[in-house]
Amino acid sequence: MNRRNNDLDVTTEAFHTPLAPYFADTYNTLNSVVQGVVLGALFFAFTEQEGNIPPLFYLKAFLVFLTTCLMWHRYVTHTQWVAWRLNLIDTLIPMGFAVTQLFVIWTMMKNSHPRYFSQAFTVLTIMGTIAYWRALSKVKSVEKETRILLAKHFADEYFGSGFYDELLLYEKRCFKHVHVLALVSLLTTFSVYLPWVEQKTQDWYVTVVLVLSSLVFGSFDLNMQLRRLNKLPACSYPHKDYFCR
Q1: Which of 46-55, 89-98, 144-153, 224-233 has the lowest mean pLDDT?
Q2: Cα 64 → chain centroid
Q3: Mean pLDDT of the 20-41 span
Q4: Which of 24, 68, 132, 170 has a beta carbon 3.0–4.6 Å from 18's, enabling a disulfide?
Q5: For the chain, what is the total number of helices (H) and then of strands (E)?
Q6: What is d(CA 214, CA 211) in angstroms, rounded to the nearest whole number?
């Protein structure tokens, strides 16, 4: 009984501890700072509005807030289980996200044509494909080292290997999903150029489609993928059930 409880305590600690603390802390700090700047700019955009704020502005602001939350959440859940040597590309990607998000907010403040809002969001989704391509390629390139680290982290080689397989599958699926999101955003941008649709209708159409597609994309979470681990045969202790609680 004591052995089982000790194993479970070790496992619970492992699930709440990053695989590589320096990598996770550094990247999460960078992402938190740049996304904090975006939220600050979004608040500033509200203060610049005069008179009654139109409902469409609130919807666009919700989209920016949603993408900010999704971006931060994806980074903090992802960096907990991966590690590689950071270089300039890893710094430029979060910075590029922030700059693009700020441009999206700028189009809102200027009440510009909906095509500019849609174009800026399309650039954001394309950057998302670059980010997932980078993550997927790096996770594959350090497969051997990651499997070893996970095996040591969970004190179970079989579970660690299965964990890596699910993590890699998640990266592949997200890479496909963000491509679909980018395609939807691109098609939405093209639809703005239809001459027979008035600008206000285009603006609402673009914003609603982007909000709905972002909600669908955000519904697929890493923890959902890791719940598949409960299908693994019994390991040395019952940590495979952690994600099913």
Answers
A1: 224-233
A2: 13
A3: 91
A4: 24
A5: 9, 0
A6: 5
In residues, how long is the chain? 245
What is the chain's percent helix, strand, coil content, to nearest 5? Answer: 80, 0, 20
Q: Output the six-digit token pair for 172.
A: 């592949």
- Strand locations in 156-210 (E): none
For residue 222, give the amino acid letter.
L
Taking the model in full, what pTM does it have? 0.82
Distance CA 232, CA 226 (A): 11
Sort residue 94 into left (φ over 0), alpha (ψ -120 to 50) or beta.
alpha
Give the contacts of 180 (CB within 8 A, at least 6 positions apart): 217
**Which residue's structure tokens are 């969970």?**
154
